[in-house]
Amino acid sequence: MVMTPLWDDNPFTQPIKPVVTWCLIAANVIVYFYEAGAPQAGLDRLIDTFSLTPAALHGDIAPRGSLPPLMTLITYQFFHADIGHLAGNMIFLWVFGDDIERALGRMRYLFFYLACGAVAGVVFALYDPHSSIELIGASGAIAAVVVGYLMLRPCAKITVLLGIIPLRISAYWVVGLFVLTQLWNLGAASKSEVAYWCHFGGMLAGAILFPLMKPRTVRLFECLQPQRETVLRIGPSPVPRASELDRIR
């Protein structure tokens, strides 16, 4: 049964708006509708040009479009196969992206998103370097965002749709199930149209880059750490010894 996140317990209430997340969603939507409106021949040229092809990235075949293969590590992230592919990715980005953007800051978040998507593409290409299968979709970058959210706010309450049943559960259950599903499906990657190795690469990149890129003031797994107890001393303070008085002076 599919679990779809709808919103978390902190939806866009901070003074700093998640402008980069909104722009990424808008860019993906605009590109998709441009794809949908293109004739079949034009759509084929778009996919050939902007998708990531492992064999082209490794130099086994010539690039199918005008872009250098390394550039497709970025461009493939903004194209989607159908409306369901787009909607699924954008829902996850809508729910989880704003918190990561606030934690990292706008420009650092944009770099994190694109870099993790590029790493996800590299991992996909390394899995089958001679493949001519074209990779498109933002799933790798979004997998990194989801893992970053787990490290940042594991105890946040998220409203999800389990089939048709709305539930409100902790983030570590939602993200944990997502991660386990991707790992479980790695064995069937060659038989599926879903690029699970790309998802795995994105999760790995997010787990490594998010702790490295976050500001020092941002704490990870804070809600899972034991709370420090405050001890109140009742009564007069002890008289300091002479050695302590010397240090005070």
Descriptive notes:
With 249 residues, this protein is mainly alpha-helical. It has a single domain (3-248), classed as Rhomboid-like (Rhomboid-like fold). The protein has ten helices and three strands. It has helices at residues 19-37, 40-50, 54-57, 72-75, 83-104, 106-127, 139-152, 171-184, 196-213, 242-248; strands at residues 3-8, 157-162, 165-170. The protein has a three-stranded antiparallel sheet. A hairpin with a 2-residue loop joins strand 2 (157-162) and strand 3. Helix 6 runs antiparallel to helix 9. The radius of gyration is 23 Å and the shape is globular. Mean pLDDT is 84; it is low at 240-249.
Write the layout of secondary structure elements.
Layout lengths: L2 E6 L10 H19 L2 H11 L3 H4 L14 H4 L7 H22 L1 H22 L11 H14 L4 E6 L2 E6 H14 L11 H18 L28 H7 L1
Antiparallel strand pairs: 1-2, 2-3
Helix pairs in contact: 1-5, 5-6, 5-7, 6-7, 6-9, 7-8, 7-9
